[in-house]
């Protein structure tokens, strides 16, 4: 029947036994479960109590990273040239806002300029970690800061605080050499990962800034410091409910960096450049310290700290004088006649007699072409000393193939060209000096075999610093410092110390691979340029500092083919004018400082724009030297007078008409006495 049980027991004992077995099985399982539960509770409450207490505390309290103050950058005298200043800012925490769009709408009523960056703000907020504050606007005025705090209760997820922002007190004076800081980009993160390194968590902090260009980039890790943290108590949703002051960790500021630059000289250099474009480098010829490294025109690096507007950046980028380019180390220029110093040294190394004379008639015929001298009427008989003094092109046209282009390149490398220097900053250009091998490699893909052959006629342009000769202002300063030192292959130094640790001196270098008497011949030619009345920059080189004299060399580098036209550039556009150069050192009898000035498209003759500026910068350098100031109390020697016929010399301003005495003329024609010994110093022209 359907109502009957499906299991039948034959007797009562069998039914009872089955019940007991089931009871024991379920009872045992229950007891086992209870035992396991009690054991687990005992383990949690007794054995692992401390571990879970720690985890609970970590969930209750967490650290919010605090970026460290960036290390200061100072000049050689302790003047801060890159520091930090207090800055009010407003931040948004996405997870504490009820509606981000609505919050930004309300914030836009208080800070209208945030509406212009609305899309960028939303993108940054959405990309930030959970409960991480994201800066919306920095450098709030006191009125804006007070307004945001006044309406804080109506702005959930919005807070205003004060932090430190990078500040450059001298604006554009140090912009290229120091660089600037800016927000971390995806490219920065990718570059670190591509090197197989772990990206520091600090880089993901929205308030952190990374170094861009110059010293800020080169020493970024040293300047960063160590981040700290604020220990805060949070609820189950991660919202801050209190701050644990005692558990917070103070951030460690970045290391202090001291440069060899002098703020007074740097500012003066940018001032005398005015609206001109170019670069200037000043070096101490004794130890290689760079006192000045200026590129003009410049820009204000403070614009980049908070994010530069695109229209401002476009204006800087598109301006023809290129203010964003560092023309001291990253711009290459033809050196013009300043390169004749190197050519002269190459001729001496090749065995050319410096007393051998070449008659300059205003041109030099080579093959089917006539190479013109800058002075149409010619200079007459010229030896090496006179050729340097008057910058006679024909002398170097006539002599250059005695040395050959390979020798000129070899000497150029040894004296300081065609290389970059470890001064702590990148973006340097090596420049070029051609040779036979250089041309063959440069035109290796040209199907015409003649394009890989060097012709002697090409050496003529190289000899006067044209053609494919390209140098930087830093290289010109290094070579001038080596000519002035005349013993050591001085290396430039920009970083004086990092975190109190001094960097190696530029004087710890080997000797120059040239005989002292060869260097002295070239140096005395530079002395004549600036101190003989027939010198190419006599009038523009008078320092007016007692008996302290300056030696130098002018240079004019053309950027276009004149053909049969005039070299005068008064009526041509800026981009077609010649480059204007001047290199010098002072004092001539005990050299201390070397300078190189390049005026981009400055016009005809190196003394018209470059030499006067070099003189003013050199005066500032010498007036800051206590030894030089003490020396200036000495009575100056009598000034020689100039004749009317020297007014036509390259770069010489028309002097007052006078008659040069026979004794003065004899002294200016006399070749200098060669000084030998471990440290030859220049003497005043006799």
UniProtKB/TrEMBL annotation:
PANTHER family: PEPTIDOGLYCAN D,D-TRANSPEPTIDASE, PEPTIDOGLYCAN D,D-TRANSPEPTIDASE MRDA. GO terms for cellular component: plasma membrane. The gene is mrdA. GO terms for biological process: cell wall organization; peptidoglycan biosynthetic process; proteolysis; regulation of cell shape. Residues 278-618 form the Penicillin-binding protein transpeptidase domain. It is a single-pass membrane protein. The lineage of its organism: Bacteria, Pseudomonadati, Pseudomonadota, Alphaproteobacteria, Caulobacterales. Residues 629-686 are annotated as: Disordered. Its main location: membrane. It is found in: Cell membrane; Membrane. It comes from Brevundimonas mediterranea. SUPFAM superfamilies: beta-lactamase/transpeptidase-like, Penicillin binding protein dimerisation domain. This is Peptidoglycan D,D-transpeptidase MrdA. Residues 66-243 form the Penicillin-binding protein dimerisation domain. InterPro entries: Beta-lactam/transpept, Beta-lactam/transpept-like, PBP_dimer, PBP_dimer_sf, PCN-bd_Tpept, Penicillin-binding_protein_2. GO terms for molecular function: penicillin binding; peptidoglycan L,D-transpeptidase activity; serine-type D-Ala-D-Ala carboxypeptidase activity. Keywords: Carboxypeptidase, Cell inner membrane, Cell membrane, Cell shape, Cell wall biogenesis/degradation, Hydrolase, Membrane, Peptidoglycan synthesis, Protease, Transmembrane, Transmembrane helix.
